[in-house]
Design a protein that fits this description.
It contains 7 helices and 12 strands. By secondary structure, the chain is an alpha/beta fold.
Length: 231
């Protein structure tokens, strides 16, 4: 991929997936750029090989942890990785890579991460949906209830269950829209459900999914058979 900008020189970058990113000045000809890349072929090949080897090393670290700890985020399973060489948290499409720590500390590390990540995501979603449907609320709070996914008070305070972060996005959106609709109708009357349906025509399917699968949105899975509760 070639990106031109107001710069004075050419730079090369190899992404984690092996793609080559070339940055070059606007005024530089394509022939010159191609020659530069060809001259760097050995470096490009070594760097790509290094990226692959680095990924393989990460996958071998703490193999007992890598092969056993999984957690659902927004409905998708992620492997939990402890990498003692990392100094910061990294999230990929299917992994959560945490910096140095022990297996015994993993539950505590995950708990801290989960609180921050769930509040950040759900907080952003309720702001977006409240703006979309013109339903401003006054306060937002959090819970870890076993079965109640949200509430809305007469003072326009909405409470969301952090465990919605485990659910697919369409499910957490349903709960948020449900609670926002209580700003219009305080009870669960026919009029209330019509308010929900106006915003979410397939709400009944999402509601059914949550009733059927909600009890499972609270567990960190180890080896697929034994479980410990995080939140």
């Amino acid at each position: 991929m070639l990106i031109r900008s107001k710069r004075r020189s050419i730079s090369l970058h190899i992404a984690e997936d092996g793609w080559l990113l070339v940055r070059a000045p606007y005024w530089l000809s394509e022939d010159t750029i191609r020659k530069f890349v060809k001259d760097k072929e050995n470096w490009i090949r070594r760097t790509r090989i290094g990226r692959i080897e680095e990924k393989e090393k990460i996958q071998k670290i703490n193999v007992d942890v890598l092969n056993s700890w999984k957690i659902n985020i927004l409905g998708k399973s992620h492997k939990v990785v402890l990498d003692n060489r990392q100094d910061k948290f990294i999230q990929t499409s299917n992994e959560l890579i945490f910096p140095s720590g022990s297996k015994e500390q993993l539950a505590e590390i995950l708990q801290r991460w989960f609180v921050n990540a769930s509040e950040s995501y759900l907080g952003q979603r309720i702001e977006i949906l409240a703006d979309q449907f013109l339903l401003p609320f006054d306060h937002l709070g959090w819970s870890r209830a076993k079965s109640r996914w949200g509430s809305c008070s007469a003072k326009r305070k909405i409470i969301l269950n952090r465990r919605l972060f485990y659910a697919p996005t369409e499910i957490s959106d349903y709960v948020i829209i449900h609670e926002l609709s209580h700003l219009q109708e305080a009870n669960h009357s026919i009029k209330f459900w019509k308010r929900v349906e106006e915003k979410l025509p397939d709400y009944a399917l999402r509601r059914h999914w949550l009733r059927k699968n909600g009890s499972g949105l609270r567990l960190l899975i180890i080896n697929g058979d034994s479980e410990i509760e995080i939140c």
